[in-house]
Amino acid sequence: MVQQDYGLHDVVEMKKPHPCKNNSWEIIRMGMDIRIKCLKCGQMVMMPRREFEKKMKKVLTKAEETVE
C-alpha cells in the first residue's frame, strides 16, 4: 500500500463529486479522523483516515509551509 502525501490545508480531489458538482476539498483537520471542506458550498465532512485514503483521488495543491 502506497502512502499518499497529503497534509493539513491541502486541496484534494475525491473519486466521487459532491452533490454541488464540485470535486475540490480542503483538509481542515487531521488525526484518526479527517475533516474536509467543500470549496464550493462549504459543506464539511468527517471520515476515518482509512476511508479518506480509499476515497481520495489525488492532491491538487499543497498548502504553503512557512518555516520561521
Kindly describe this structure.
This protein is mostly beta strands. It has one domain. The chain contains 1 helix and 5 strands, in the order ββββαβ. A hairpin with a 5-residue loop joins strand 3 and strand 4. It is globular.
Task: List the main descriptive attributes of the protein structure presented here.
single chain; 68 residues; five-stranded antiparallel sheet; 5 strands; globular
Please specify the SSE layout and strand pairing.
Blueprint: E1 11-14, E2 24-29, E3 33-38, E4 44-48, H1 49-55, E5 56-61
Antiparallel strand pairs: 1-2, 1-5, 2-3, 3-4
> Count of helical segments?
1
As a percent range, the share of strand residues is 35-45%
Reading side by side through the largest sheet, how are the strands ordered? 4-3-2-1-5
Q: Kindly report the oligomeric state of this protein.
A: single chain
Total strands: 5
The level of helicity is 10-25%
Unreliable spans are: none
H/E series, N to C?
Answer: EEEEHE
Task: State the major sheet.
Answer: 5 strands, antiparallel
Question: Measured on Cα atoms, how large is the radius of gyration?
Answer: 12 Å
Average the pLDDT over all residues and give the rounded result: 87
Q: What general outline do the C-alpha atoms trace? A: globular
Strand-pairing-aware structural class = mainly beta
Number of domains: 1
Distance between the termini: 34 Å
Protein name: DUF951 family protein
InterPro entries: DUF951
Pfam families: DUF951
Organism: Trichococcus patagoniensis
Short description:
This protein has one domain.
